[in-house]
Protein: Formate dehydrogenase, mitochondrial
Organism: Ziziphus jujuba var. spinosa
Amino acid sequence: MAMKRVAATAVRAISSSESPVLPTTFSRELHASPGSKKIVGVFYKANEYAKLNPNFVGCVEGALGIREWLESQGHQYIVTDDKEGPNSELEKHIEDLHVLITTPFHPAYVTAERIKKAKNLQLLLTAGIGSDHIDLNAAAAAKLTVAEVTGSNVVSVAEDELMRILILVRNFLPGHHQVISGEWNVAGIAYRAYDLEGKTVGTVGCGRIGRLLLQRLKPFNCNLLYHDRIKMDPELENQIGAKFEEDLDAMLPKCDVIVINTPLTDKTRGLFDKDRIAKCKKGVLIVNNARGAIMDTQAVADACSSGHIAGYSGDVWYPQPAPKDHPWRYMPNQAMTPHISGTTIDAQLRYAAGVKDMLERYFKGEEFPAQNYIVKEGELASQYR
Amino acid sequence: MAMKRVAATAVRAISSSESPVLPTTFSRELHASPGSKKIVGVFYKANEYAKLNPNFVGCVEGALGIREWLESQGHQYIVTDDKEGPNSELEKHIEDLHVLITTPFHPAYVTAERIKKAKNLQLLLTAGIGSDHIDLNAAAAAKLTVAEVTGSNVVSVAEDELMRILILVRNFLPGHHQVISGEWNVAGIAYRAYDLEGKTVGTVGCGRIGRLLLQRLKPFNCNLLYHDRIKMDPELENQIGAKFEEDLDAMLPKCDVIVINTPLTDKTRGLFDKDRIAKCKKGVLIVNNARGAIMDTQAVADACSSGHIAGYSGDVWYPQPAPKDHPWRYMPNQAMTPHISGTTIDAQLRYAAGVKDMLERYFKGEEFPAQNYIVKEGELASQYR
C-alpha cells in the first residue's frame, strides 16, 4: 500500500464531511476561557515505526499532526504515552490541563479521582470512538464536555469485523501456522473450515458499525439477525436484509456467528458471562471489536477450551494493553490482535481531522457536531444512560 | 460451527441445483462399456481428523461418501493419497483403472506418460475445479473425457479471496503474532494498516470466481477493475460496478490490490514474472487462490523481500504439497496457507455430489452438465485452448 502523504486539503475534506457545518448562531455551550490552553494528548508510542509512514499521525510522534497549528496559536501541547500511576507524565499535568485528548487504543483512564484533581479541565476528547475509559458520571457532575469523533472509524471497524468472521469461519490461522512451521496438512484445516454462505450471523447492537457490517455481509447470502434497543424502520431493515430480534437470549441459540457491536455501559459490562455463553449454539464463533469488558474474560477462555465457543476473534481486551498473562492470549481457537481495527492510517487521518475541528470550535466557543457529544451540560448522551 | 451430518436429501438438492437436468434424448458422448468399472480416487488423508466431522467427505477416509453406492453396483473403488513415483498406490492401478478422480488440493498429476500406460482409462474427474494437474493435450489426443464440478466451490474461493484481501490491507497477521508472543505494540501494526474502502482492487481474470468476488467487494466502496479476455455485457458490468481493462499491463499500475482469478494455461504459466511484477505499484498487495505456477516463485519472494510487493496471500503453490524449503514459507509479509479455500466442508458436500452425479451419468452413458467438460471428444474447452 502506497505511503504518500495525504494532502492537507484531503484531510480538510474528510474533516468537513465528518463534521457537518452548523449554523453560526448556536449559543456557546462550551465556555472556553480566552487565552492560551494547556492540551495533553495521550497516544501510543510508535518508536521506530513513526518515520515509516508520513500519514502515521495517531501516535505520540505524529501527535495528530496538530502541534504546529496549536503552538502557532499560543497553546501548549504535551503529548505522551505515559499514563499510569502517580509518577506518570499524564499525572504531572492533570492539575492544570484544560483539554485531554486520548484514544481507545491506548486509553488514558480518567477516573473520578483524576477529574477531582483536574481543576482546569474543561474538555475530554476521544481521538476515535468510545469514552468508556472515562468515568462519565463524574465527568457529567463536574460539568465537563466529553466528545468523540463519531463516525471516524466505523468503516474501519466494520471491515475488520468481516475479516474476523471469515478468518474464524474458514479456519484461516491453523493453515497459516502450518505454512510457517514447515507443515502441509489440508485435512487438519478442512475438517472445520466452512463457507460463510448460508450461515446465521447475528449482531448484538446495531448502531453505525453494526449496520455497516450488515451491508457488507449482504452479498454473502447469510441469514442476518440483529438485536438492538431500537428496531430499524422497515425500509432500512428491508434494504439491509436483517431480521430484528427483540430478545437477545432468543437470538443467541440461532447464530453460527455472533458479533458484538454494543458500547460498554453499566448494562453491557459482563453481558457475556458463563450463563449467556451457555445459551449460544455449541460451536459458535464470536467476534468482538467493541470492548473487552463486555465479556467475562475467564468464561470466554473456558468456553474456548471446552469447544463450546469454536472460535473467538477481536481486538479489544480488558485491561489494555493486555498483560502477558491475559488468558485470551493462550486459549485455543483465538484470532486476537491488539486494539487496532479503528486505528488504520485512513482512520487516523479522519479522527485527527475531527479532533482538530472540535478544538477549533472550542477555541471559538462554537458547538461541536451534535452526534459527537458523549457528555454535554452535565448530561450523558442517550446511549450511555 | 455445528458439525451435524447433512441429510442425504440436502446433498441431493445441492447436486441437482449444480447439475441442471438435461434432456434424456442426448446422444451418448461418453461410451462407458457395460459392466464393472475400476475407479481410483486420490485425495488427501485426514488421519485423526477424519472422525471429527461426519460431513468431512473430501478426504481418503471420507472417499466422497460414494463407496457404498459404487460397491453396491459392483464397481471397484480404490482410494489413496499415495500418488507419486513408480511404487505409489496410484501407479499400481494406473494400467487398468477406468476412472480417476482427484482434487486440486492433493492432485494426482496425470502426465502423458501415465495416460499412455492407462490402457482402460476413459474418464478423469476433478472433485472441485481445475484440471491443470492433467496433461490436457495428451488427454485430448487419447480421447479421454476430462471434467470438473464447475461451480462447486466458486463461492468458497471468492469468500476466501475477500478474507485474504482484508488480512493484507488491514495487516492482521503481525497483530496476531504479537498476541501469541506476549507483546502489545499497536504502532507496529498500525503504521501499515489501511481500510479497504477507497482502494483500487483489480482482478486478473473475471470468470465465475472473479465475479463473485466483485459482488462481495461492492459494498466496500472500492474502485473495482477487471481484466479478462471478454468484456461483460454492460448491464452486468454496471450491476457489478467494475470497469473493464483490456490491457493487463495498463491495469496493474493502478491497483492497490491485485487478485489472480485466471486458470493456469500455457498462456498464464509464469504470467507474473519479475518484469510484470515491476509494472505493479510499489507496495501492491497480491492475492492468488488460482494456481501457484501463474507466478514466478522466486520473483514473488524477491519482491516481498524488497517491499515492492507489500503483502502476498494465497493458498496455491507449485508444487503441492509445498516442500519445506519453498521460499514462500519464509518471505516477509506473506499470509499463505496450504491449498484449502475450495475444500471447506460446504464445498466438499457440493463437489462430492457433483462427482456422484457425473459417475451416475457415465454409467448410464448420459451427457454431463455442459459447463463441466474440460476435454470432450478430443477437444479442450475454450478457456483452456
